[in-house]
Amino acid sequence: VVGKDCPVRxxxxxxxxxxxxxxxxxxDLDSLYExxxxxxxxxxxxxxxCIKVQESLLxxxxxxxxxxxxxxxxxxxxxxxNGIIRLDNGExxxxxxxxxxxxxxxxxxxxxxIARKIFTFGRFxxxxxxxxxxxxxxxxxxxxxxxxxxxxxx
Length: 154
Prior knowledge:
It is built from seven helices and three strands, in the order ααβαββαααα.
């Protein structure tokens, strides 16, 4: 478990689980990513897009994430084939981590391409425009319209 300011009560609870280490703040994320095949983003509050999900995919790692962590992602794109496992059940996290046949085969190329396809400048422009005008988005939160996709492709 990586992240700054982890409350001691969580650290003790999580480290009681077999195979779990709470590292706290880590200055070299590159070497840590090289050692893992998946990340977990159990995020339930905050603002903006959860960069942890994109960062994981851009590094070719599967991301197991809460619905809140996936806000801004089109729902149809949140599937295992795209490196995303949606999970909001606290007990379900353990089961997924224990049952997955974790392999990196082909993920280092495929997952970054998916993240780059989803988060484009056109989507950013659309999201900012929606925020400014207050108009609702089509489909998932932040999903661009057909016109936006054509006008701001790439």
